[in-house]
Design brief:
Blueprint: E1 10-16, E2 20-29, E3 32-42, H1 57-71, E4 82-86, H2 88-92, H3 96-104, E5 112-113, H4 116-128, E6 136-142, E7 147-153, E8 156-163, H5 167-174, H6 182-197, H7 200-206, E9 210-214, H8 216-227, E10 237-238, H9 239-249, H10 265-268, H11 271-284, E11 289-293, H12 297-309, H13 314-326, H14 330-347, H15 355-367, H16 379-389, H17 397-408, H18 416-442, E12 455-461, E13 464-469, H19 477-492, E14 496-500
Parallel strand pairs: 1-4, 4-5, 6-9, 9-11, 13-14
Antiparallel strand pairs: 1-2, 2-3, 6-7, 7-8, 10-11, 12-13
Length: about 500
């Protein structure tokens, strides 16, 4: 992978939203992402969640068929310049792994299920890159399964929240039969107010200069207001205009009767729920007017991907922030990182490890001791828990799961059944990365900058590892003892670790 994207190279993002799936393809032009092609389909994945939170077969087939059509447009995009993210519907789906496995047979890259706050961060990134700087802004994005609200300045989010209310989910709860009445609408507004009440005071205290809306619901509401003459001179959606839109909506008895000028047919069914959510947002956050932005999640995903190529990777900033938050020893982390990279370089080709695997190992090495902030006993388990369940900017749920496993297994005994769990999560690559991190940590047990013996790791085959320790092993008796113990642990995961030195030869 090249370090930098050059101008005119393509980037692409697939946003698997709870209501719609979107594909965007763009060129990089002097550091800016310029969209050149896009596709959008109303898949309504969230509508396919049954009472047990399982995706129905029909919903899965709609999603897979859409992804297959998207792939037909991606022939000119390199896989390493594509990201595929999934949001609330797959976060909620108990059988989401089944859908992901089926999709893997179609897609050139794995699906990343992103947490709600990560979705919010990426939405803000997409909005902020498509608007002129205007001080502090509040961004509101009503999706199919969740609503994201972000306060930020320039390109940096300050507050990010993802609330469990969306136009598809609320349609199922309050407007499923398509009927429109005051009682159902009021119930939807009250439910949205309840979700918003947890953050309203914090957000109003933080304040903002402008309010920006993105994505389909707000786009439709604003366009109707413009067409009906209910917007202001800047064609923004105002509180008064939204009130008129609500009053007009409640005059209809059924969604089939709605005759709003410019309303797309595929938006019709979810519009009442979307308006109810938007009314609650305006009311609880005291919003008077809202500007619409075409930027959204898929644009944010591409800008985030561009940053990774240009050494502005938010994930590395998040790692450093976590180290600071939990007081991890930076000198020890650097020692382990350096050793881990050296070991990785010696075996990467033999084990078919990639630069992405190197990044995963490096970030795990930086974070392997964060659990010490909780307790010394079992700190690897505490660290793994923090990494599994924290909102970490830039990381998908799969990323966090992988790092969590690496940290969980970097010390103490390795159980045979634990290998099965690791294999399920990340295959043999994740198993090998766990063992590399263990060796890197072990080789730095002294927590000292004193010269270590020269270490070289090589692979005869995936089950035969050889570690060569240069010099007289008697100079490092504790290291030799640790390595001897580690051989037993490697065997639990079906790896023979052979150690060679002048005084210690298997």
């Amino acid at each position: 992978m090249s370090d930098f994207l050059i101008d005119e190279e393509l980037l692409a993002a697939i946003d698997m939203g709870s209501n719609s799936f979107h594909l965007a393809i763009a060129r990089v032009d002097h550091g800016e992402v310029k969209k050149v092609a896009s596709m959008s389909e109303k898949v309504q994945l969230a509508a396919g969640l049954d009472e047990n939170k399982n995706l129905t077969e029909a919903a899965q087939q709609r999603g897979l068929a859409c992804l297959a059509r998207f792939v037909g447009r991606l022939s000119s995009v390199q896989p390493n310049r594509l990201r595929i993210v999934a949001t609330n519907a797959l976060r909620q789906a108990k059988n989401g792994h089944e859908f992901i496995q089926k999709a893997a047979e179609i897609l050139p890259k794995p699906i990343e299920i992103i947490a709600g706050r990560e979705e919010a961060r990426l939405i803000y990134l997409g909005v902020s890159h498509t608007m002129a700087n205007s001080g502090r802004r509040l961004v509101v994005d009503i999706g199919g399964g969740s609503t994201e609200l972000i306060i930020g300045e320039e390109f940096e989010p300050i507050h990010t929240e993802s609330l469990q209310m969306g136009c598809v989910a609320f349609t199922k709860c309050y407007f499923q039969d398509g009927e429109i009445n005051q009682k159902s609408f009021d119930k939807a507004v009250v439910a949205a107010r309840k979700e918003l009440s947890a953050i309203a005071n914090t957000y109003k205290e933080a304040g903002w200069d402008t309010v920006v809306g993105s994505s389909g619901t707000i786009k439709a509401c604003r366009q109707i207001a413009v067409n009906m003459g209910w917007s202001n001179e800047q064609e923004n959606l105002t509180r008064e205009g939204l009130e008129k839109l609500k009053d007009k909506l409640l005059k209809f008895k059924h969604i089939s009767e709605m005759d709003f000028e410019g309303l797309k047919e595929d938006r019709r069914a979810v519009l009442p729920a979307g308006i109810a959510i938007l009314c609650a947002v305006f009311e609880l956050l005291d919003i008077e007017a809202l500007v619409y932005s075409d930027g959204a999640l898929r644009e944010g995903v591409m800008y985030d991907l561009l940053g990774r190529f240009q050494h502005e990777d938010i994930r590395d900033r998040s790692v450093q922030a976590l180290m600071g938050r939990y007081g991890a020893d930076p000198k020890q982390a650097e020692r382990v990182v350096k050793t881990a990279q050296h070991l990785f370089d010696g075996v990467a080709e033999s084990l078919n490890l990639t630069s992405d695997d190197s990044d995963l190992l490096r970030r795990s090495a930086y974070l392997h001791e964060i659990g010490l902030a909780i307790s010394h006993g079992g700190y690897h388990r505490h660290g793994a828990y923090l990494l599994q369940h924290s909102d970490i900017a830039g990381f998908s749920q799969i990323d966090q799961n992988h790092i969590s496993h690496l940290v969980a297994h970097h010390r103490r005994k390795l159980r045979s059944d634990a290998k099965i769990d690791v294999m399920k999560v990340g295959g043999s690559k994740l198993v090998h990365l766990c063992l590399l991190l263990r060796l890197a940590v072990l080789l730095n047990h002294s927590r000292s900058d004193a010269m270590l013996p020269a270490i070289e790791l090589s692979i005869g085959n995936a089950q035969q590892w050889q570690l060569c320790v240069s010099g007289d092993a008697k100079q490092w008796p504790l290291l030799v003892a640790d390595l001897h113990d580690e051989q037993l642990q490697f065997k639990h995961w079906d790896i023979e670790l052979n150690i060679q030195s002048e005084q210690f030869i298997d």
